[in-house]
Amino acid sequence: MPEARVIPLRPDDDEPHVPPSSPPSWDRQLTDTLEFLQRRLTGEYATDEFGFDPDLTDNVLLPMLRPLFNRWFRVETHGVENVPATGGALVVANHSGTIPVDGLMTTVALHDDHPAQRRFRLLGADLVFELPFIGAMARKFGATLACSEDAERLLTDGELVGVFPEGFKGVGKPFRDRYTLQRFGRGGFVTAALRTGVPIIPCAIVGAEEIYPMIGNAKTAARLFGLPYLPITPTFPLLGPLGLVPLPSKWLIAFGEPIETASYGPAAAEDPMLVFNLTDQVRETIQQSLYQLLLKRPSVFG
Fold first, then answer.
1. For the chain, what is the radius of gyration of the CA atoms?
2. What CATH topology corresponds to 51-211+246-296?
3. Contact, 154 vs 144, CB < 8 A?
4. Which pTM was predicted?
5. 104 membership: H or E segment, kind and range
6. Angle 77-80-82 (CA atoms, 0-180°, nearest 5)?
7. Is 60 exceeded by the pLDDT of residue 176?
8. Residue 60 gets which letter from DSSP?
9. DSSP E strands: which ranges in the chain?
10. CB under 8 Å to 3, separation ≥6 — which residues?
11. Averaged over 187-194, what is the pLDDT?
């Protein structure tokens, strides 16, 4: 059975990776904004077959998320050198936070902190794409359905694909179970990686558990709205709309060493024992890495 490998945090990795950058001048920003508006009005922009809109992502969606990333959550990114600069790869991460903000912050991390500014193509549950406005924005941001067919097409095209195998069990778990990984399903992500021969990159995320501490679940109301859960937190619904503001927890995102799959060959995807062992290796690597990151973080809001 393959051994789990804890995501290393080397002494020289104590500081987050921050690429050198300087903010554009106001006249450059104004010019860029006018050019963007012109492209939107004239239709001179492109989307791919999944609905991904890089022009909107770069000029609207990512800038909207950066204040959260840089100032509110103060995200530190570690191990970006483990993410290949080109070619397909599958990033597998823990899921938490009541609302899946972790996927958004990881997308910013891989674009802004990776030297190659990699696009992160998230795989989302059906419910995400059924929600008005949110579903459309998710597709424009690069997300698509969490199914093997879409995942394999993206990986074959050389995309960096992200999956959260815990699904709603992870993002909607009670606060008392924080940083304890839930079941990883049947290993569909491993099957996709084996069929396409891409590396699997474990990713551990600390900080998301505390943004909306889920202390209760209004199950009856959730069923009425067709939701997997309806969270009760210390601030929601007690404070109304203010309760939707996430708490400013300190975030750490670490990418581990790639687990190669090419040597197994595509036929290995039909071997249930190999799929199980690789799934268990990825899960154990992420779990042990979460413990390591929690020890590294000085405090929840530090």
1. 19
2. Glycerol-3-phosphate (1)-acyltransferase (3.40.1130)
3. yes
4. 0.90
5. helix 101-112
6. 140
7. yes
8. I
9. 76-78, 89-93, 120-124, 144-145, 160-163, 200-206, 216-217, 231-232, 252-255
10. 281
11. 95
